[in-house]
């Protein structure tokens, strides 16, 4: 999330679109509401427009940036914050975010996530949910719709189900293409994910739940009877009180947990 400086060209392979609308930047900061006691992590800081605002308000800020050419720019720009600002060059998809957790201060994660990595990166971050207080992301509007979708919605699927297992999902506001340079071809949106302190619904085996959800949505247009055939029979599904003739988007999170727990037993 950053303002584009002279001499740096956004790179398509990194999915870079530099945020330049000061009104949007201020609105994002207000939504995050960082405080001086908190430890923040920013993914993909770009040239640091959001970074600068965060540094003025938090106890510590770690940033993860893939583009090596941006590292010296960030180091120079935020030299005076060296006591609480650390840059980590690397791929967020492979980063161990637990390494930031000190056992006391939960992490607050912020990021402008490129479309091509947003889904796998959110799944990666969910594995650290115990160490995270909340996450604020700028994403393609379509991805935010998938995160917040309910049973029966066309956008409902694996991403939303697993995100909602771990987190309360709250879409915040839209960001138009003209807020960026270069302008993307799609609308973006800000979303807040708040990991539950205590899960409202608990699966006996989370890996079983992940397998059931992934298998059920393997072919969206087919029914549970067909998609879940490798895992259990139509009679088994019926005995659980679920219609095997339904398509997967009709099932609630609780339904998927019921199936996963049956397989765990």
Provide a compact summary of the structure:
The chain has 265 residues and is an alpha/beta fold.
In what range is the share of β-strand residues?
A: 15-25%
- Give the low-pLDDT segments: 1-8, 10-15
Order of strands in the sheet with most strands: 4-3-2-5-6-9-7
- End-to-end separation: 46 Å
CATH level 1 name of the largest domain: Alpha Beta
Output the radius of gyration: 20 Å
By CATH, the superfamily of the largest domain comes out as Vaccinia Virus protein VP39
Q: How many structural domains can be distinguished in the coordinates?
A: 2
Identify the CATH architecture of the largest domain. 3-Layer(aba) Sandwich
Encode the helix/strand succession as letters.
EHEHEHEEHEHHEEEHHHH
Instruction: Specify the number of helices.
Output: 10
Structural category is alpha/beta
CA-based shape? elongated
What is the β-strand count?
9
Task: Give descriptors for this structure.
33% helix, Helicase, Ruva Protein, domain 3, alpha/beta, 265 residues, Rossmann fold, single chain, 10 helices
Task: Provide an overview of this structure.
It is a single chain. With 265 residues, the chain is an alpha/beta fold. It has two domains: 12-195, Rossmann fold (3-Layer(aba) Sandwich); 206-264, Helicase, Ruva Protein, domain 3 (Orthogonal Bundle), CATH 1.10.8.100. Helix content is 33%, strand content 20%. It contains ten helices and nine strands. The longest helix has 12 residues, at 115-126. 37% of the residues are buried. Residues 1-8 and 10-15 have low confidence and may be disordered.
